[in-house]
Write a structure and sequence with these properties.
Strand order of the largest sheet: 1-2-3
Strand content: 15-25%
Radius of gyration: 20 Å
Number of domains: 2
Oligomer: single chain
Helix content: 55-70%
Order of helices and strands: EHHEEHH
Length: 92
């Protein structure tokens, strides 16, 4: 079951931004900022944002791979693993 994100009005953000940022820093959950009763922005702490960005990149890579396989352009698992091993060795 998905957790309901915390919601605060933009007025609360304006009145005490430091407190909102402290609350956000200690949480891994998004904070929805509303304006006139509607979602206007979503705030994340930097770690949660980076995790989300990395997950998105990984999902996009999987989607590209699926598309390549469907077009007959995919690579074998062995060749991908050899390439990954070479990249990891080059980094160390």
């Amino acid at each position: 079951m998905t957790k309901v994100p915390e919601i605060i009005p933009v007025t609360d953000l304006r009145q005490d931004a430091a407190a909102v940022l402290r609350r956000l820093k200690s949480s891994r959950e998004p904070l929805v900022i509303t304006q006139r009763g509607r979602a206007a922005a979503i705030m994340l702490n930097p770690e949660a944002y980076e995790r989300s960005r990395q997950e998105r990149e990984l999902l996009l890579a999987f989607a590209r791979g699926e598309r390549e396989i469907a077009l007959g352009k995919g690579h074998s698992l062995d060749s991908v693993l050899r390439e990954a091993d070479a990249l990891l060795e080059a980094d160390s």
